[in-house]
Amino acid sequence: MIGSERTSLMLEVIGMEKHELPGLGYGYAALEPYIDMETMKMHHMKHHQAYVDNLNAALDGHWRLSGKKIEDIVSGLAKVPENLKEAVRNHGGGHANHSFFWKVLEKGSVPESDVLEKLKDSFGSFKSFKDQFSKAAKGLFGSGWVWLVADRERLKIMVTRNQDSPLTVGKIPVLGLDVWEHAYYLQYQNRRPEYIEAFFKVINWERVAENLEKGSKGKVAI
Ligand SMILES: [Fe+2]
User: Fold this and answer.
1) Residues 171 and 119 in one domain
2) How far apart are the CA of 79 and the centre of ligand 1, in A?
3) From the CB of residue 59, how many other CB atoms can be counted at a distance below 10 Å?
């Protein structure tokens, strides 16, 4: 095989890499009664799958991008060609955000002292953090996400619209809440405040602590 043929074959192989729907790591009913099985099934199997499929369709043939990890694609959105940028922003962001979200959910977890200490340093108290986070989630008009992000030594609350990721603007997510209606409407209808309250019952604080540890070193955890 001559050099150009080998290169062409390699590019073809790289270009065939597809993003895949990650598993939840727990059952669809594991977060009940706070987030019910039907909601989790639809959210993961239909909505997240659609972001993955649409991202793969958008990247088809774009071998330079399709072989990259989703967090690297979303972090480097500014470098994505203009004709792909909107699709990558929406579907790549959707894939990255949901992949992150599933991992910060677990029933029965409680924050340990180091996490509580960091929240206290940045917000004054856990209650103040929860109040500010909840207020941001209640006040978000339309669809989007509320995040706890690592910004140098501080933790901050951040809101992103649609499927925009904090990674795109250089912020490292530690915790995130999906405030799209598809995340709660089946169970809570228009009662978003109840969904937000329920979310605080299913935060995987161990994972948050890991994200904090990685975030403090400038590393991304998805
Ligand atoms: Fe979602």
Assistant:
1) yes
2) 25
3) 25
Single-letter amino acid, residue 27:
G
Q: Let me know the angle formed at the C-alpha of 27 by 126 and 190, rounded to the nearest 5 degrees.
A: 60
Handedness of CA 106, 110, 114, 117 (dihedral sign): positive
CA of 82 to the centre of ligand 1 (A): 25
Please report, rounded to a whole number, the percentage of residues in the chain having pLDDT higher than 90: 82
Element (H or E) spanning 1, and its range?
Answer: none
Task: Name the more confident of 4 and 31.
Answer: 31
Nearest Cα neighbor of 187 from 1, 33, 6, 9 is: 33
Closest C-alpha to 174, from 126, 206, 202, 201: 206
CA of 53 to the centre of ligand 1 (A): 15
| 195 shares its domain with 128 | yes
- Under a CB-based contact definition with an 8 Å cutoff, are residues 221 and 215 in contact? yes
pLDDT digits (tens, 9 = 90+) for 164-183: 999 999 999 999 999 999 99
Q: What residues does the ion ligand 1 have nearby, CB within 5 Å?
A: 178, 180, 183
* Peptide bond just before 173 cis, omega within 30 deg: no
* Domain interval for residue 174: 113-216
Per the structure, the count of domains in the chain is 2
In which band, very low, low, confident or very high, does the pLDDT at 8 lie, cut at 50, 70 and 90?
Answer: very low
- CA-based torsion, 163, 220, 57, 26: positive or negative: negative
Are residues 97 and 52 both part of a single domain?
A: yes
